[in-house]
Write a structure and sequence with these properties.
The protein is an alpha/beta fold. The protein has helices at about 15-25, 50-55, 75-100, 130-145, 165-175, 190-210, 230-240, 270-280, 285-305, and strands at about 5-10, 30-35, 60-65, 100-105, 150-155, 155-160, 180, 185, 190, 215-220, 225, 250. It has a 6-stranded parallel beta sheet, with helices on both faces. The protein has a two-stranded parallel ribbon with strand order 6-9.
Length: about 300
């Protein structure tokens, strides 16, 4: 423990949610956030997990590190399953042994996207590809290892950190007049910084109470919905406000942008359960998109020696 703060140990080091938790943790009176990733913690070698995590004496573990290469997983399903399934179970088993809660991040990819409405937590799972299957294996492994778990499914994550759709759009817009963007996949763009805020609140709740209703599966995604093309249009509208890159968006069907892994047509997650039970409601995706674009514009301004 650091003073009166609880020790939140997060798996991973450079992922968007990990970076967001580290940033938010610097201003938290409740938690000291400690990230442990490669090379010390390698989820592709699950037997190494126990000793590393035990040595940092966590009060709560956030299982955030994952194999996230969706298309690559189609040819590396065994590797994806070791990281997203086996390792997730090992982390949860250690949490049981240490008598601490585990918060595990999962994904909309556990669903097949055929439902016309937003998915609720109890809807049948039916992943379309290897990545979704590996993440579903992780959900099951965590639930089997400990009842003191919270599984948070999220979707379409973006942030000022790492690689993501928002940053890719801004990069591709440099020197172009037009971008083709898929318009027939619908989901909830979700800020990793908003996810971090939600995780901190959920962690505080489960540390403060043994109530079973605080545990289980919850959906945590940005409010509102969009297609990828809608998301891109909003990104460029915000970028234009900061004299940043902007292009015309050509709305195309996913059939014109084939990928190795099939994506769910509908990735919308219904998040009211999280709001009712944990009092966590993520902001509208447009508001968080605006904040992220403004921050990236400010960073670029400073890097160019103007600030």
């Amino acid at each position: 423990m650091n003073g009166s703060r609880a020790r939140m140990v997060v798996t991973g080091r450079y992922g968007q949610v990990v970076q967001s938790l580290l940033e938010r943790g610097r201003y938290s009176d409740r938690f000291e956030v400690i990230a442990i990733g490669r090379p010390e913690l390698d989820l592709s070698a699950p037997d190494s997990i126990e000793a590393i995590l035990r040595n940092v004496h966590p009060d709560v573990i956030v299982s955030a590190a994952a194999y996230t290469a969706v298309d690559q997983a189609e040819t590396e399903e065994d590797a994806a399953t070791v990281v997203n399934g086996v390792a997730a179970g090992k982390i949860a088993a250690l949490a049981t042994e240490l008598d601490v809660p585990v918060i595990h991040l999962s994904t909309d990819y556990v669903f097949d996207g055929s439902k016309p409405l937003a998915y609720i937590e109890s809807d049948p799972v039916a992943p379309l590809g290897a990545y979704g299957r590996s993440k579903l294996a992780g959900e099951k492994a965590v639930a089997e290892a400990t009842s003191n778990h919270v599984i948070l499914r999220t979707a379409w994550v973006y942030s000022p950190f790492g690689k993501n759709f928002l940053k890719t759009m801004l990069r591709l817009a440099e020197g172009r007049d037009r971008l083709n963007v898929v318009d027939d996949q619908i989901g909830n763009p979700t800020s990793a910084l908003d996810i971090a805020d939600g995780i901190l609140k959920v962690a505080a709740n489960v540390l403060s109470s043994d109530a079973s209703e605080l545990r289980g599966i919850f959906h945590m995604a940005g409010s509102g919905e969009a297609s990828w093309a809608d998301f891109a249009v909003e990104i460029f509208a915000q970028s234009a406000l900061h004299a940043g890159p902007t292009v015309d968006v050509a709305r195309i069907p996913s059939s014109q942008y084939p990928t190795q892994a099939k994506r769910p047509v509908n990735s919308k997650l219904e998040c009211s359960k999280l709001g009712e039970i944990h009092d966590v409601r993520l902001p509208d995706w447009r508001k968080s998109t605006a904040k992220t674009v403004a921050r990236l514009a400010q960073q670029q301004y400073k890097e160019q020696g103007q600030g």
